[in-house]
Amino acid sequence: MKPYFRVGWNLMKYNLIRVLFCRNLKIQGLPLLGYNTKISVYKTSSVTLGKNIISDGRCVIIADQDARVEIGDRVYFNEGMMISAKKSVVIGAGCQFGPNVKIFDNNHCFDKEQGVLAKHSSSGISIGKNCWVAANVTILKGTSIGDNCVIGAGCVVKGDIPSASIVTQQNNLKIAQIEDRKL
Predict the structure, then answer these.
(1) I want to staple 161 with a disulfide (CB 3.0 to 4.6 A). Which of 61, 97, 145, 170 is the partner?
(2) How many CA atoms lie within 13 A of 28 on its CB side?
(3) Bridge pairing between strands 88-91 and 125-127
(4) The whole model's pTM is what?
């Protein structure tokens, strides 16, 4: 089925969000965002969606007060994508994201007497151009990923990743042989 209805629906939906909630919501081109895509913004947020962005399934983008979210051209989001920005999240053109990728530029503050607080600390995230971020990856505040990187499935990423890097998490499988017993 051609996505004409979806494109028309998205244009109406996101133009309405722009008028009512966030004048700084900029959509370039025709977004092919899934019907379950949710964009939560504030009047002081700045959200820019590049050309030819595609999402399959549920995708959530939250831009808190004064937060900035920029997504480049030709970016693909798979099912279960979530971006939570209290400061800034910038994604370069040509990136692809596997299922259940989570991007958080913020974290709850913690106090030894009160435990987890409602207050947050935040630090911007930038993801370069043409990156592949595989399934179940979590990208934490303060992360900078260079161009042309691959982030392997299940990684929790924090810090600086140089361009043209492949990042995997060390997971050792323990395989035990079952002894052959007669019952």
Answers:
(1) 145
(2) 13
(3) parallel
(4) 0.84
